[in-house]
Amino acid sequence: MFAVHVGPFPTPGGGVGDWFLELSSGRASALFATLAGFSLTLIAGRLVPKTGQAGKQARNRVIIRAAVLLVVGTALAMTNFGGAGILNFYALYFLLSLPLLKLPARTLAFIAVTLAVVSPQLAYGLRALLTESAVHTIDSFDPIAQISGVGVLDFALTGLYPALTWMTFVVTGMTLGRLDLDSWAVRRKLAVVGPAMIAFGYGVSWLLLRVTGGAKEIAAQMAAQTAAFKDPSAIGDMSLAEGGFDMPVGDQLWGSDAWGLLAAEPHSGSTFDLIGSLGIAITVILTVTVALERLEWLRRLATPIIAVGTMSLTIYVSHILVILALPGEAAAPPQSASTGLLLSFIAGAILFAAIWSRFFRRGPLEYLLSLATKRA
Questions:
Q1: What secondary structure letter does DSSP report for 260?
Q2: Cα dihedral angle (150, 151, 152, 158), rounded to 10 degrees?
Q3: Is 104 helix (H, G, I), strand (E, B) or coil?
Q4: Long-range contacts made by residues 7-12, C-beta under 8 angstroms, separation at least 24?
Q5: How far apart are CA 48 and CA 46, in angstroms?
Q6: CA 252 and chain centroid, separation
Q7: Is the pLDDT of residue 234 over 80?
Q8: According to the model, what pLDDT value does residue 25 have?
Q9: If we measure between CA atoms, which residue out of 244, 250, 39 comes closest to residue 125?
Q10: Helix/strand/coil (H, E, C) string of 215-234?
């Protein structure tokens, strides 16, 4: 997340550092959303869904969390960070997950596969039907859009993390949450599934784009988009929202020729992008789970980073506020984006979390969120 928001732009064909920066783009937020789905099963019951009164309490906790995230996310959307924030999108994800909280892993996996295959094409078709006047009319009746400029239509279809396609990540996370990750049989299957999804998502996309000639079209559009993101004055029709951190998506990013449906580029929202990003998320989650279980020295070494994970909401909101407070950061991307700034954010987050966790069980915002859900 830090690499995407404050790191330097990767240089095509660069070294390991550039490869990492490129890998972070899109995949960090996909992992974030997958873990959000996993967290829902921690609330609703890991292996066995809660029922009765406990089940009602779990649903209430999810609803309250959605309301809190909507308020915080909308407040952040009112800043120059704009639609690049994901918290208000999470509110819709959580509400859409309510009917799924009691489903077993097999059913959740079927839903996730269906979403990955169907939702990108459906989203493209719906966006193609939207006119500027239709968007304006919908937003005029949306109080959230009126307040922050990022409303329900963005959350569902046109934003950077539209629920129509991004629920694929959330439901996959819920599927992982319902699996017995302590079972080596499950781990062996995931060790095959994760890399296979990576190979399929990125490999098949690479092949199709070169067979069809779409690679050249995508490269031209990506070059124009990258130039626009680096220099808002050069954007033209493909504008960043109000000079903020928003990036164009859907038809604006990939054009009206639908080549984006074959691409696996970050935020293309294609089936190949979803499958490849999910393959990375599954592989990361499995690798870290096994590594920390088997290597006690690694767990001790990772303690400060684990502390960051216990207060991810606090760190997320704080890093946005710090970016906005940096001198001269009124436009996107941050003018001071660099390796030094990236390392400063990483070190600052780890240091804060390590010190705070010595005295408190939860992060500051996590504590407030816990208080809000106690009534449930």
A1: G
A2: -40
A3: coil
A4: 7/337, 7/338, 7/339, 7/341, 7/342, 8/337, 8/338, 8/339, 8/342, 9/226, 9/230, 9/333, 9/337
A5: 6
A6: 20
A7: no
A8: 84
A9: 250
A10: HHHHHHHHHHHHHHHHCHHH
| pLDDT tens, position by position, 101-140 | 999 999 999 999 999 999 999 999 999 998 899 999 999 9
Q: CA 297 to CA 123: how far, in whole Å?
A: 46
Q: Which residue has the tokens 């164009």?
A: 248
| pLDDT tens for each residue of 327-355 | 765 444 556 778 889 999 999 999 999 99
- Band (pLDDT 50/70/90 cuts) for residue 227 is low
- Beta carbons of 156 and 24 less than 8 angstroms apart: no
Report, as an integer, the average pLDDT of 10-14: 72
Per-residue model confidence as pLDDT tens digits over 193-218: 999 999 999 999 999 998 888 778 77
Residues 6 or more apart whose Cβ sits within 8 Å of residue 280: 23, 27, 30, 31, 194, 198
Locate 66 and state its tokens.
């959605």
Q: In sequence order, which residues have a C-beta less than 8 Å from that of residue 341 and are 6 or more positions away?
A: 6, 7, 334
DSSP 66-89: HHHHHHHHHHHHTSTTGGG--HHH
Contacts of 332 (CB under 8 A, 6+ apart): 80, 82, 84, 229, 232, 240, 243, 244, 245, 246
CB 193 within 8 A of CB 200: no
Q: Residue 208 and residue 257: Cα distance in Å, rounded?
A: 15
pLDDT digits (tens, 9 = 90+) for 283-298: 999 999 999 999 999 9
